[in-house]
Amino acid sequence: MSTEDINSIKKFLKFQKMHKSLPSSIPIQMGLDSKAFKLIVSRIGGLRRPQNPVLNLQFSVAANFFIQNQQGEKCFFGRTYNSPRLNVEFGPDGVNYEHPIIPIYYHTRILNNKEMPLLIILEIQSYETQQDLVLKRMHLGWCELQALTITTQSTKLNFRKGSPRILLLGQQVNFESSGISVTCDLVQSEEFQISMHLSPENALCGLGDELPGLKKSFVGGDFELQRSMVVFMSKIQVLIPDTMEADIYRQVQKYRTYKYRTPDDYKGDIQIINKRLIVAFHNGWTFINTRGTNNFVPLGETRMLVNEFVDQKQIQYKQLAYHGVIDINNVCSTDPTVNSGMLVAQLEYEAMFLVSNLTKETMQLTLGWIPIYINNKFGADELVEEDFIVGPGKTLDGRPLVSFQNPELSIKLKGSLNLSGGGFQIQDLYMGAASTQQQQFPQQQQGLQQQPNLNLNQPHQQQIQNKQEQQVRGSDIDIRTQVKLKDFEQQLLRLQEENERLRRLAIQQTSDPQKQQEYLQAIEKLREENRLLQFTQARQFEGLEKLIKDQKAVDRTAAPPVVLAEAKPQNTVIKPIDSYAYPVPSATLKPITRTDVTALIDDPISMDQENRLMALEMQDERKDQIIVIQPVSMKQILGPYPICKSVQIGIIFYDLQTFKSPFLNLEYYNDERNFKYNLENGNPLRLLYNNEVFSCKFNIETSLQRYANLEQDFARYLFNKNLILDIWDSESLFLFGSIRIPLRGIMRGGKQNAQIMADVEIQDPQSKKVKGTMQIVIKNIGKIGQQDMSKTVPLENTQNGFQKKKLVSEKPVNRMEVPAQAFDGNSIQDRIKKIKQSNLQEMIKNKQSQQRSLNEVLKYKEIKKPSLVRTIMQGFLQNEKVVHSFYGKCEIVPLYFKNTRPKPEQFTVNIEDPESRMLEYQEFFLIGNPAEWKYWVTNNKYPEPENYDLIRMKENQGKTQYYFILDPNQEVTLLFKFISFRQYDYRVDDHERTPEYIKKYMQSRHITILLQQDGKMMDGLRIIVEPHQQPIDHVLRFYERDNRQTRLVIPRLFNQPLQQQPHVHITDPDVMIEWSSDFNSIRLNLRIGEPQSVKIFNILLYSDQYQHKIIANWKIEVYSLSTIDIEVPLGQRVCTKITFPCDITRIIKMSSSNKMISFVKPFDSEITMLPGKINLVPINILALQDGKHLIKLNGVDIHSQELIYSWLVNVHAEPQPPSATYDLRCIDGRESRHQVNYKNQVNYTTQYNIVSSSEYVKIIDHSISTGPNEIVQFKIRVLPGSEELVRIFITDIDERIFDVIVLNIKYVY
What we know:
This protein is α+β, with helices and mostly antiparallel strands and 1309 residues long. The chain has eight domains: 3-206, Immunoglobulin-like (Sandwich), CATH 2.60.40.150; 229-508, no CATH class; 559-783, Immunoglobulin-like, CATH 2.60.40; 829-876; 880-1028, Immunoglobulins (Immunoglobulin-like, Sandwich); 1034-1119, Cadherins (Immunoglobulin-like); 1130-1214, Immunoglobulin-like (Sandwich); 1220-1308, Immunoglobulin-like (Sandwich), CATH 2.60.40.10. Helix content is 18%, strand content 40%. The strands form 13 sheets. Strands 21, 22, 23, 24, 25, 26, 27, 28, 29, 30, 31, 32 and 33 form a 13-stranded mixed β-sheet that branches. Strands 45, 47, 50, 51, 53, 55, 57 and 58 form an eight-stranded mixed β-sheet that branches. Strands 2, 3, 4, 5, 7 and 8 form a six-stranded antiparallel β-sheet that branches. Helix 5 (442-449) crosses helix 6 and helix 9 packs across helix 11.
């Protein structure tokens, strides 16, 4: 089983949602019995109705466990419960509302401790939705409550703002209330007590969770258990290669050396003292059979050695066997189409090694595990032959797997399974005590697992006596605990005896017709319950399924899509056009010429031709243009690729977002006979939309735009660029191919209309092979538009009056103030003191008045400062410049300035860009580099400065500040450069402009340039940035293996090698670039991400280092896919399986990009995939060409037309030695026929099938019948071609006999 299968199995497991188990580093008092609780969230207060009455309000609840011990250690643990989104029903007044009650269940052995309480953290999120589409999500807060304190009445809790993760910091924080409250009750749950064994301890579950083992499957008020069964496994054999068992000894030696620092050559004995096979039942949450993973049997080594051949190498296996029977009870169902569970077989070794001469230690090793499904036939034996899943990795219960040196070898399990009904129900066994005993005494249970003779064949009294002795020796248990253990052991003994009796009875009465009839009736009853459950689920999805089908029907019959107003770019409009939706007659197709563009960058055309055509375009009074694109027909070439019957075309044109057409059906798509006839005869089939040829229109209205150079830029685009069409298969969503059409032919050159009709090759981007041709018509229609509008709008210099505000004066604190005193006497001394005191008070008053006046002036300045600054700035910024910024295109903004002062002055340039602090680089800056300044002055003919080394730069409070010194009357033309590598998003609103969004996308904004001298404003300019999307020259797609470092090679760039290396800019900093020696190819080094992810970036090629002119803009898309590597013999059919992950119930159609891989019935047609199940899809691989083949597999939801999952299959086909070789001579350019002899190699009559590896060699007799050792002849037809070596594969009907004949074809003239 591949790693992908293992990951898909783990996604099925519900306990994968567990954070972690309770850490051992946090000592918590644990009880023996696990108690079940129910938390009822009955009322959530403070919810508000959305302001838009069309929207609905929904909410969801999340719950987590949190605990802290006396040492201050704290953590979240257990399983996180997330409820489904629930509707809130508001009353007519819009204030009162009702919502469903949410029950949450859990069981735990943690004892209630007031000093270390176990807490449940509740979080609530609200959703504003419209027709199940979430428009807004908001976190409403969190609260905590004690998880073990039973409440006698409802408790109301207030929610706090922020995240509960702040509890991990342990800081005292005054939490702010969020205005939301919740009313809840906590009670002990008797109904969950009988079924709590179905979920692990400390796992929160509730409304919306599926709990296999319940009769109704989903958690709710009814916890009635599903009927359980008993499975018996016998004839157990395990085959393990000798080399793998040698790896186990090396693993133990490595562990001992690491732990005890023993030398590598230490000769301490290592012995395998126990080998056992664990067989248990897992329901997706936990093991629910009686003994859990303690249900094992010992494996004995036989003397038999088995030899098998793997990849033409002989492998010697050691056989382990168990001749008895092991039973697995409480099996609910093992049907993979029902989300119930699976049997798990696990192989474990126990090793003992010497630490010193007197000390020994044992070590448990897990070699592998297998998920097993069986049929539901009572009494019917089912043979099991599976390979173990080996390391590296872990088992379902978290045990690490042994890593072998050669993981390609496999450990095999063989056995027989028998299903028996009528066993005891799970409620008859109190699993709480069983799970409690396993968790309370792990050391004792580990000791039990190490006893090789402790199994079902040992007398039960002896087992109980051994367990009692070990428990008394290993722990201090009080009297109450011993009584509970004794009661449990007696109950366990009775159940084991009853189970043994039922097992013997089931084995004896397997052949009894009456019992078989009873078994069949029980099966029919279970099937009836299953059909009722499926009918209920189908009714729930009936409305949604009907909605999807109706929407799909509307899409098929509606007009071609129109880009919405808010998504419309400034200079283009996409509309359906009916007047051009006409079928092109066959006579019109005759003058169609073939266009073949091979290199990524075409050779440059002479400037004279470009200037002449540009002059004609600029002189034309028909400024507005209508571009009509009409794909007429399509012809496919038969080959190893699947045939398309319906396509969707993506059009990449000018600076627009990619336009996707509706689904276009090929002519005769529903007439299999005519479709096949035209396909085989190479006839083009029309592309139809509503039985008419589809066309789309692009309006280029240059007269209505503020973009002054739009007409010139669009004409230059038509002259230099190509139209890119991506053709996608509508059913499989594979990229069928791409075409590029030069647009120079639709330049009107002063005429009213111009059109081209081209027969363009459709090329596969991966293999570079031609898969067909497309006949397309492109037309350019000119029309006279409105008068051009002014390009700049000056700002009005309006003087705004100062806004009056009330000033608040505060009396300053004067530490020199002397308190007033009363003088009774009139002595000279008293009068002197009085005069001094009066003078002192007068002086203090004067100082207070001065301080008060100063404070008022400062406050006045602070209040009036913004208004004053705005007034002064508007006085200087009387002009503005509009910069139309294209993605990756450099724009230069000149600013003339002169020093009018009579002396040299230093001037400062400040750039106020509102988005500069959120970007990693400066998009708008002053050119201060002397070399670059001189370059732009020379190319753009700007006034040359007296000194290029004039501008200095410094950092001031995180902002870049420029300054320079000018002599009296000295002039300078400052050059500002703007270049951005952010995409332009047409559809974004202002409230979506988060910092993360601004780093990726650009919108219109204002940038202010201020020239100052000693803080005084001298000059300035306002820049209005209008973003545009840069036309894309190529879209290169790569499909690569996930999670690895890889190197991608960009194909040939130029038709002729370059003499120097061009300047390249990559928008992704994690991608490294390498040039070839002739500068004609590029290698990219990058890291591939997680499966089903895509990495998108652009590569821009410039003519020089200053990014003056863009040569090309390539969009790179790297798709990360789960990859399966498989080696197959050439010409032989090999079957394997892939795992299909599924989140909801879907109807899936599987597709392959190459006929080499086919799907086994019923997976070759539409199939239903269920969530939470291990959906295994079998595939057949038949390789007819040797070498490596990369094949892509897609799983598409047929209702939503959504790609759900993709795989990449790396097939390596190895040729087999031929039995005969023939030399054939054929006349070049002519068809020839030949007869080939073949001898039957067996002594009986056999029917053989014959297949050719080449499409140029056709087999006339595909099937022949031969007698024993008979020589027969079969006929072949050799078509004109270039194949020199062709293989003929011969197999019998059962594919047990395989033979190869090689034909060496030589063409003569």
